[in-house]
Amino acid sequence: MSTYVITQARMTSTRLPGKILKQIFGKPLLVLFLERLKRMKTIDGIIVATTADQEDDVIVETVSEFYPNMPVFRGDREDVLDRYYQCAKKFSVSTIVRITSDCPLIDPHISDLVVSKFLSSNCDYCSNNLPYRTYPHGLDTEVFSLKTLEKAWNNARTQFDREHVTPYIYHNPNLFELISITSSCDLSSNRWTVDYPEDFEFVKAIYEKLYQQKPEFDTNDILELIKNEPQLIKLNSNRKI
Which residue ranges form the domains of the chain, and what is each CATH number? Predict the structure, then answer.
């Protein structure tokens, strides 16, 4: 049994191209994101799943530069479900943790809670954002077995399901046993992912305030910061959750 984070990454984001290589303190967002993932205690490793497109050569080069022993898989650009399935098969991953690379504020402790919940149950899929979100947008973690992924890979037909990997799973509760974890308080109004330039400005501000003093800053540190400096929320408040 092996448990790996498989994180999808590509340069050709439609809303903010090249976002994962935008830099803070001389480090690309992708590297800062992976730095946080490496603090997880419930996983055996991390695999970066990018595309076979030439534009994404730079992702392979970046991972190799900062984490030379971290595996990288290259697959289909649009059929991300296939990319995940082929990646999991190649590296013999039995439990897949899906966390997308546009989440540079991901909290390893919260992600560990989701993985632990999955591993201690007999479910097919566990997440922290269904059936409704209680954590900040940008802390999303999904965990599922290779068997579940294979069933989705065999049966998902729509472009949406193939592109977004897991909708076929959580939209078919009659086929899969789904469980979730929720926050003790509703934090869903917080937008901590990076889709737009305003999101990057927010994340950059958080790192500039916290990273040098405490590189392993967590959700509580961010919440305390924005409580004391509420103007930070305005940086991307024009973008919906």
Answer: 3-194 (3.90.550.10)
